[in-house]
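<goal> How does this chain fold?
<body> The protein record starts here
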Amino acid sequence: MVALLERFQNRGGNIGKEESGICLQHWIVSGQNMASPRVGFRLAVCLLNISEARKQDIVERIAEAALRDKPGQKKTQTTVLNIFSDYDYNRSVLTLAGPIETLGISIVTACTEAYDLIDIEQHDGIHPCLGSVDLVPIYPLSESVSLEECGEVARDIAERLSHDVPDCSMFYFGYADQPLKRDLVQRRKELNWYKRSNLNVNEIKPDVGMTVSPRYGLTGIGASPYVMNCNVTIDTQDLNIGQQIASAVRGANPGGLRGIQAMAFPHEGTVEIACNVESFKDKPPSSVTEKSTQYISYYIQGEEYLYFSPISIERQIKKLAASHEVPTVGTALVGFTPERCKNLAEQAIREGCGEFWKRHKTITM
């Protein structure tokens, strides 16, 4: 096992320098100003899911922790691109991006802060969850970053967290789950994540940690190709209609949309169809024209990956909702597409802007 500190901290000193505007930090690393253009970043991203959205001071303290190596010291090369918080879900997604070689320690500091501030026993929200830190997925952004490398980083994060927060516990998924590489949906089904009310934590055997702490719960840590969250709201309070639509677009069902995982939730007096948009490698059985409009491609290690476009998801849900005589009232993309995420991460790092989220509260299509 390669120690996390050896992997992530052997990179010289850092000095914070105050500047005006939203981005208050320009970083000096090994004598080079991080605000100047740099090439050669090998970027990855973590869409950190925490079980808190109603206390924004706590959410922002966790985001700020990701920018520190240790208390009082700002961190180099990591940026928090976006914070998406949902009051009804009582869940926030923090988009943490940076070089794969240094991103892990930022995730550790953010998770440690979250464990300290969030008690899962006190959680009240409609979204399923098992942990104060519910999900830590690592995705490659740069083509040169491999899924295997992201999996190694995920496992190193879990080992470091188990050392720093002894009562926390974790399960692996994707490229961190060796040798099986079970995906997140399969692991969640095995752990009854979707039916939290029926969960007996004493029956869970975590991959890391001895038992599941009532305070911290269980955290999923893993790596996979990029997964987006695309949520479409329909103007009804009839959850049954939402569940029918979610079932119809779910990729595992006949006629569903490839790579889509979907659930329906009551949300602010309406119903939200919450979609996880997974990337996949093998090409769909469709014409070139259909592929160009429905699917968007990007590359990992020279291999093409595709995902169903958010516009096409919205179009299909709108069509299904219309069959129930229900209109849609909005679509939210939680975070960014893979391409947009990579471009913004490069921009933020060039500018030395760790607090990039202050420019981007949410993105709505």
Notes: Residues 245 and 317 are 7 Å apart (CA to CA). Residues 100-117 form the longest helix (18 residues). Confidence is low (pLDDT under 50) at residues 1-39. Residues 227-326 form one domain.
